[in-house]
C-alpha cells in the first residue's frame, strides 16, 4: 500500500509539472512516470491477495514484467535531446506554442507504440481488476456469503477499496475518450487525492499515538515521566487487565483495541498503556498477540483443532487475516501454525 501511494504520488507530481509548465524547466523529468502506469495494477493485486492470506513468492516478480519492458523501451525517449522532450510536452498538453524546428532525427519511439500507452494501461488495469474481483467473490463464497453482503471485516474492507480503484479506472477511460493526450488527467488526480486523504484519515483515526497524553516533542524516555500513577494503582490496573485477558478472553474479539480494554476496566487508555509497557515490558498489541497465539496453540493440539483450517483457527482467536495470524504465530513460536500442529 505504501509503494502504491508513492507511485500514485509520483504520477501526480509529473501531472503537476505538466499543468504548471514547470516541465519546461525540468525537461529531464519529461514522461518519467510513464512506466509506472504498469506498476499500479500489480501492486493493487498483490496487496489484496496478501490481505486474503496468500503467501508472497518469487513468482510475484513476473507481475512487473510489463513495467520492466516499458521502462526499457522508454529509455530510448529518456536519452533523447531536450528539443524532442520540449516538443513532446507541447503535444502532450495540447499547448498553443510553436514547436522547435530541428534537423535531427527522432529515435525515441522506433516502433511507434508510445501513443498506445494509455490504451495499454487501461487494458492492463482491467485485467487485474477482473482477477481481483474473481478472488474476492471466491473468498466470500467459501464463507457462504456474497461479496456484496459479506459480514467479514477483511472482505468488506477489500471490497470497498476495490470500488475506489474501479472508479479510478472508469474515470481514466472517460478522460482518455473525452480528452486528447494527457489533458484531463487532473480529474484522475483529484480522485486519487481523495483516496489518499481517506487513507490518511483512517490511519490517524486508528493510531494509538493520538490516545497518548505526551507531546510529540518529548523523547521516548520521557513518555511516562509525568505520570500521576502510584505503584499500588498500577497493581490494580494490571490485575484488571490480566482478568480481562485470562478470564474474559478479551483478545478473541477481532476488533479488540486499547480503548475498548480501557473502557472495560474503567481506566484511561494512557494509564493502561503505561502499565502494560512498564509491568509486562510489552505493547498492547504484543500482549494481545501473546494471548491469541497461546489460545491458538491450545486449539491446534485438540482433536477439533486438527480438523479446523488455519483460517478457522485464526478467526477463533481474533485474527481476520490468515497472513497476520501466520506472521504473529511464527514471530512468537518460530514455527508456522501448520508446523506446530504437525509436531
From TrEMBL:
The keyword Transport does not apply. Residues 235-343 form the HTH araC/xylS-type domain. Pfam families: HTH_18. The lineage of its organism: Bacteria, Pseudomonadati, Bacteroidota, Flavobacteriia, Flavobacteriales. The chain crosses the membrane at residues 27-49, 61-79, 116-137, 158-177, 183-201. It comes from Flavivirga spongiicola. This is Helix-turn-helix domain-containing protein. InterPro entries: Homeodomain-like_sf, HTH_AraC, HTH_AraC-typ_CS, Tscrpt_reg_AraC-type_HTH. SMART domains: HTH_ARAC. It comes from the Bacteria. Keywords: DNA-binding, Membrane, Transcription, Transcription regulation, Transmembrane, Transmembrane helix.
Amino acid at each position: 500500500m505504501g509503494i502504491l501511494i508513492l507511485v500514485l504520488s509520483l504520477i501526480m507530481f509529473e501531472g503537476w509539472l505538466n499543468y504548471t509548465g514547470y516541465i519546461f524547466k525540468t525537461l529531464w523529468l519529461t514522461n518519467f512516470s510513464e512506466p509506472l502506469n504498469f506498476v499500479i495494477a500489480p501492486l493493487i493485486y498483490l496487496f489484496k491477495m496478501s490481505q486474503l492470506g496468500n503467501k508472497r513468492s518469487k513468482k510475484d516478480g513476473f507481475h512487473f514484467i510489463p513495467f520492466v519492458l516499458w521502462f526499457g523501451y522508454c529509455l530510448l525517449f529518456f536519452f533523447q535531446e531536450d528539443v524532442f522532450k520540449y516538443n513532446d510536452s507541447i503535444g502532450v498538453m495540447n499547448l498553443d506554442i510553436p514547436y522547435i524546428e530541428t534537423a535531427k532525427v527522432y529515435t525515441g519511439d522506433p516502433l511507434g507504440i508510445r501513443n498506445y500507452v494509455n490504451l495499454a494501461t487501461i487494458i492492463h488495469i482491467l485485467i487485474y481488476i477482473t482477477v481481483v474481483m474473481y478472488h474476492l467473490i471466491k473468498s466470500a463464497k467459501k464463507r457462504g456469503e456474497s461479496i456484496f453482503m459479506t459480514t467479514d471485516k477483511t472482505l468488506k474492507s477489500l471490497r470497498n477499496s476495490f470500488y475506489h480503484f474501479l472508479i479510478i479506472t472508469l474515470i481514466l477511460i472517460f478522460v482518455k475518450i473525452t480528452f486528447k493526450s494527457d489533458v484531463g488527467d487532473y480529474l484522475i488526480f483529484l480522485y486519487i487525492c481523495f483516496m489518499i486523504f481517506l487513507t490518511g484519515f483512517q490511519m490517524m483515526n486508528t493510531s494509538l499515538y493520538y490516545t497518548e497524553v505526551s507531546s510529540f516533542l518529548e523523547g521516548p524516555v520521557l513518555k511516562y515521566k509525568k505520570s500521576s500513577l502510584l505503584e499500588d494503582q498500577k497493581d490494580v490496573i494490571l490485575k484488571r487487565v490480566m482478568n480481562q485477558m485470562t478470564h474474559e478472553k478479551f483478545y478473541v474479539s477481532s476488533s479488540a483495541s486499547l480503548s475498548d480494554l480501557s473502557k472495560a476496566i474503567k481506566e484511561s487508555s494512557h494509564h493502561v498503556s503505561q502499565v502494560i509497557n512498564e509491568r509486562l515490558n510489552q505493547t498492547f498489541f504484543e500482549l494481545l498477540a501473546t494471548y491469541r497465539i497461546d489460545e491458538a496453540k491450545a486449539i491446534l493440539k485438540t482433536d477439533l483443532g486438527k480438523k479446523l483450517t488455519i483460517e478457522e483457527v485464526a478467526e477463533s482467536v481474533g485474527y481476520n487475516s490468515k497472513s497476520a495470524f501466520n506472521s504473529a504465530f511464527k514471530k512468537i513460536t518460530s514455527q508456522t501454525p501448520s508446523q506446530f500442529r504437525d509436531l
